[in-house]
Structure formats: C-alpha cells, structure tokens
Amino acid sequence: MTTTTGDTAILAGVLDRWKAAVDAHQPESVAAQFTEDAVFQGLRPYSVGRQGVTAYYASQPLGMTARYRVLETRRPADGVVLGYLAVEFSFTDRPPLDVKLSVLVAREGDDWYIGHYQVSRLG
C-alpha cells in the first residue's frame, strides 16, 4: 500500500476546509468537517462527536493557524482513507508546535468527513 495522488487529493479536500476554519478561529466550521460520531483526540482527553471538537477549537488561542503536509495515505476499505500528516500549529505569542496527525476520513454522500483524529507530539 502506498500514498496515491487520488487519496492525497481526498485528504486535501477535507483538510483544506479544516485548516481554513482553524485559521479563521471558527470552531463550529471546524467541527462541521467531522462525522457526527467522530473520535477526536487533540492534546487533551478525547471526545466523541462534533460538540467535543467545537469545544476543543473554541478553547484555542486567537491567531492560531495550521499548516499540514501529507506524509502517507492508505485505503483500508472502499470509502475510507487513512492519512498520516505532519502539522505545524503557529501562534502569535509563542513558538510553533509541530505534531503528527492521523486522520481517517470517510465518504458520506458526496463528500468526505473526518471520522477519527489523533494528534501526537512524537516526532
């Protein structure tokens, strides 16, 4: 299994919307990129569902932005893409935070949404 252009494009479609909402500090728009029952693990205890995603991003500082790079993709099943990414979160008042992010995106209707999101500080 290898990273494919098609799978990278699918991830970019979801993650570009996620990034735009993170950069604009719009927690509800960030959460709209997730499935209703998404498992979300930021840098605090996990939550399930869009409400937890909204609360997490509402607590992030104004001016925080995200920049991502897709490192690997896998297609474990039809309608599902797994992505492993490097993400840099930048802040106005402190050094950037580099993390690794694993996401599982799933097709729902004509679009794709994040069903699982897990951040790690490990390099």
Explain what the structure shows:
Helices cover 27% and strands 46% of the residues. The chain has a single domain, classed as Roll (Nuclear Transport Factor 2, Chain: A), CATH 3.10.450. It has 123 residues and is an alpha+beta fold. Strands 2-1-6-5-4-3 form a six-stranded mixed beta sheet, with helices on one face. Strand 4 and strand 5 form a beta hairpin.
What labels would you give this structure?
123 residues, alpha+beta, Nuclear Transport Factor 2, Chain: A, 6-stranded mixed beta sheet, 6 strands, 46% strand
User: For this structure, what is the CATH class?
Assistant: Alpha Beta
CATH topology: Nuclear Transport Factor 2, Chain: A
Shape: globular
Average pLDDT, all residues? 95
Per DSSP, the total helix count is 3
| CATH architecture group name | Roll
Count of DSSP E strands?
A: 6
Low-confidence stretches: none
Structure classification: alpha+beta
Strand percentage: over 45%
Spatial extent as radius of gyration: 14 Å
Largest sheet: 6 strands, mixed
* First-residue to last-residue Cα separation: 22 Å
Strand arrangement in the largest pleated sheet: 2-1-6-5-4-3
Share of residues in helices = 25-40%
Strand/helix succession: HHEEHEEEE
Number of domains: 1
Write the layout of secondary structure elements.
Blueprint: H1 5-23, H2 27-31, E1 34-41, E2 47-48, H3 50-58, E3 65-77, E4 80-90, E5 97-108, E6 111-120
Parallel strand pairs: 1-6
Antiparallel strand pairs: 1-2, 3-4, 4-5, 5-6
